[in-house]
Specification:
about 130 residues, mainly alpha
Length: about 130
């Protein structure tokens, strides 16, 4: 059974649309677009900044493959980026200077309450501490 030209074109367009809409996971450097999000659980507002190259630290568990080839300084930045995305002000001069250069960073408090981190962030902080 032969398909009409219009039907073949429609099917090709639908297939292309499905491919283009598939989520892409990447750790590539992306332009930062700071924004605040609101969670509906317990109707509390979080101050997490999304749209950074570090978002994946809040959405999945890290593995050793993720940090293979990283030196201790890079691991330190990864760990502290979780705190930075929650608005922590850093006492350490090197960390403070690094995060102050990030367009998305807004330091607003000296400490972040432990209960504000999600399960991925808590696990990733502990994981990265082992390698720092």
């Amino acid at each position: 059974m032969k398909l009409s030209s219009k039907r073949r074109l429609l099917m090709a367009c639908m297939a292309a649309a499905m491919l283009l809409s598939a989520p892409l996971e990447t750790n590539a450097q992306v332009p930062s677009i700071p924004r605040k999000t609101t969670t509906n659980k317990a109707k509390k507002t979080t101050n997490v900044v999304w749209g950074t190259q570090y978002d994946y630290l809040s959405t999945r568990y890290l593995t050793e493959d993720d940090i293979s080839g990283y030196d201790r300084g890079q691991i330190r930045v990864l760990k502290n980026s979780i705190y930075a995305r929650h608005g922590r002000i850093f006492k350490d001069k090197a960390l403070r200077e690094y995060f102050n250069e990030q367009s998305w960073y807004r330091g607003t408090r000296n400490e972040v309450p432990a209960g504000e981190f999600n399960k991925y962030e808590n696990a990733n902080i502990m994981f990265l501490k082992k390698y720092e």
